[in-house]
Each structure stands twice: as C-alpha cells, then as structure tokens.
Amino acid sequence: MGVVSPVGCTVPEFWSALCDGKSGIGDITRFDTEGFTLTRAGQVDDTLLPDALRSDESMDIATRFVLAAAEQAMADSGLPASNIAVTDLGVVLSTNFGGAASGERILAHCHNNSSAAFSDLAEYSFQRAADHVAAACGADGPRTVLSLSCSSGGGAVAHAADLVRAGRAGAVVAAGYDSLSRLAWSGLSALRTMTKDAVRPFDKNRSGTLFSEGAGVLVVEDMEHARARGATIHAELAGWAYNNNAHHMTAPAKEGAGSAAVMAAALELNDIAPDSIQHVNMHGTATKHNDPTETQAVKTVFGDHATNLTITSIKSMIGHMMGAAGTVEAIATILSIRDGVVPPTINHQESDPDCDLDCVFNTRRETSIDAAVSNSAGIGGCNAAVVFRRAADE
User: Across the chain, how many H-helices and E-strands are there?
Assistant: First the structure.
C-alpha cells in the first residue's frame, strides 16, 4: 500500500493522523483562488514527496502524487521489476481530472494565441500517468484508466481484482489520484456540494463536503502467487463490485438503491454472509442527500445486523480525494482490520435521526474487526464496493 494525502505522505503518517482525528483541511495555495467563494480544501504538502519527484516539473503534479504512492506500494509489496515477469504485472489507474494542471497551461496558451508545449499536451492525458506508473513499476501487463467520478478508486481496486481472478495478471497496481487545480475547482464549485463550514458526515448540521488531492495505491495479487514468494499479506480482498444507478446525473437513487445493490453484489461474489461484517468505511460526503441515502443502503443490505456495524467517514479529516477517495478509504479499511481501530468521524455536533447507525464520532474506537466493507458512490450514479477480511494463515 502507498499513500500521498493531506495528512501524510506515507501509510504510517496517514494512519496515525486518522486515528488521532487530525484534519488536513486548510486554505488553498495550490492555485490562485481569486473569484471563488470557497477556498478551503485538503492540500498535499508536496515538499514531503521524494526529491526526484518534487523537482521534476516536466511531469504533472497529480502524476507525481501517484508515482510517489506507487513507489511506496511497490516497496511494500516486494515486487520490484527485477523480481517479477513484467507481463504478470498490470496497472489500473483512476482519476477525475487527470493532468489538470497541465490542462490549465494549455488553456493559457490558447488564451494568449500561442502554441502549447508538447509536454503539457502529453501530461494532460488521462493515460499519461498510467504510462509513468507502468514504466516506474516495470509493468508490461494490462493497463487501464478509469474515470468513474467519486467511485473511481473503488472501481480501480475492483477492476484489478477482476484482472487477477481472470488470470490476466498475477498482480495489479490499483491506483487512484487527483490534484487540486483552478480548472477542477471551477467544476466542483458548480456542483454546489461544498460547505463553508467543516465537513460533518452524518451530522444533523452537515452542509456539504470539501475536496482534496493526493493518491492511494494498492497492489492486488493472487493469494497463491503472494504466498509462494513470501509476501506480507495485509488483507484478503474477498468481494468487489461496481455498477451505475442509471438514475440522475447528480442525485443519488431513492433510498440508496444503487449503493445497496453494489454492496450486496460485492458480498455475494464469494458468498460472504452480511452478518460476518463488523465495519463499513462509508462514502460519507456530509451532503444533505448522500448520508441518509447511504445509511438506508446499509440497512437494506445488512438488515437487523446494520445496528451492530461500526461506521466512519474519513472524509471528515482528509476531505473528498476525488479519484483517490476509494483507494485511500480502502487502505484505511485494511488498516482498521489490521489494528482493530476505527478512525473517528470528526466535527460531530448533533445526531441526525436519519443517520442513526453506530458512527464512531470524534474519537477513535478500538474494536475487533475480521471483515469490513469500503463503500464508494459518485456523480453520474457510479458506485463501487470492496470487501476485505483478515487473511487466513496457510
């Protein structure tokens, strides 16, 4: 696993900050915010990136985020290119905005009636980061880029698992990434889902989300393949699914029907009993519509067992990491299983009767977790869910 986030640029830093309930939200300095009403987000301290990536301005900043996280994940996996047949290693990337900073430079050239640099044209492409990651990881297997709005990261993990299960790859680098940019912020502001306040998932006083940047990377591998080489296995990816509501461009389906369907499908893939799950890492955007519909979706899938689940939304601390949200939340879910800790949903003030699950508010909770779900949903009706459980001994 590898992480670049507003609260840390390594997995241990990220996890420690989450467990301590630290917020990564602050004033935007990544771009000029003149003309915007809302100017707070979760920004990465890019001085913490590896020196070679921090100084390489020929590469889009978002690509540098995902490369830094991929470098961590590959080191953690023990799969450097020299130790694996390159045709066995695939890459699945997910993003909402790709190389948006490079895209802005192209627009500036257009505005000035000048020619855009070839490097900017190349770096803006959604495919370009996948090229960089594949080269850095020595991956010559299947290569895919997904853009499934806010469920992109979860979709990347699910698609990686599909490739492994189908025998198309022995292992896959599943990565989500995005960066803050004026171009992206313009579109996000138009959605009118952001808050002037703190991000308060499942709170009666919630008023919206705030967006952020970074990357999350997981190496998804066939279990026998991993055991044969003596890899450290953090968790078993036991179920996965992705779908679409086919309902509305921005509004969630009634009673969270799409989210319920995708979580149910993820559990059913390998006949996982709903009552074997102890924890759900929720999408939890703190918007008026998402939180109650996601609550209803959990109740639909888990029935009476829903009241036994611990839930949380780490977006309260790190904001909505766009294309990276699903991958960093998957990593947090795995770490909750590993350490028996559910990080808090901070900023809670007042309970909402429409969001009445057992949310871990304000202070982390220690509890035994053998299996957990990470749920994602997005604009355009995209949904993804992944199920993790503690890896059994051989």
Answer: 13, 15
Q: Where are the alpha helices (DSSP H) in 125-274?
A: 126-137, 152-165, 182-190, 223-228, 257-268
What's 256's domain CATH number? 3.40.47.10
Closest CA to 120 of 111, 107, 131, 132: 107
Q: Could you tell me if 379 and 191 are in contact, meaning their C-beta atoms sit under 8 angstroms apart?
A: yes
Q: What is the pLDDT of residues 216-266, one digit of tens each?
A: 999 999 999 899 888 999 999 999 999 998 877 766 777 789 999 999 999
The single residue of 159, 279, 283, 348 carrying the catalytic annotation is 283
Domain for residue 140, yes or no? yes
User: Do 245 and 252 form a contact (C-beta atoms < 8 A)?
Assistant: yes
Residue 183 lies in a domain: yes
The answer on pLDDT for 394 being more than 60 is: no
Report the domain count for the chain.
Answer: 1
H helix or E strand, kind and range, residue 68: helix 61-77
Confidence of residue 17 (pLDDT cuts 50, 70, 90): very high
- Could you tell me how many residues make up the chain? 394
The boundaries of the domain holding residue 118 are 2-389
- For residue 274, CA distances in Å to 71, 260, 298 come to 35, 12, 10
CA distance 269 to 382: 19
- Verify whether residue 159 is a known catalytic residue: no
Name 299's Cβ contacts closer than 8 Å, sequence gap at least 6.
306, 357
Report d(CA 369, CA 372) in Å as an integer: 7
Burial class (CB in 10 A: 0-12, 13-18, 19+), 347: buried
Cα 151 versus chain centre, distance: 8
Q: Residue 84 pLDDT more than 60? A: no
Catalytic residue among 150, 355, 359, 382: 150
Residue 19 lies in a domain: yes
Does 111 participate in catalysis according to the annotation? no
- Tell me, yes or no, whether 394 lies in a domain: no
Catalytic residue of the set 132, 234, 279, 320: 320
Tell me, yes or no, if 234 is annotated catalytic: no
Segment 199-216 shows an average pLDDT of: 97
Helix (H) or strand (E) holding 336: helix 325-339
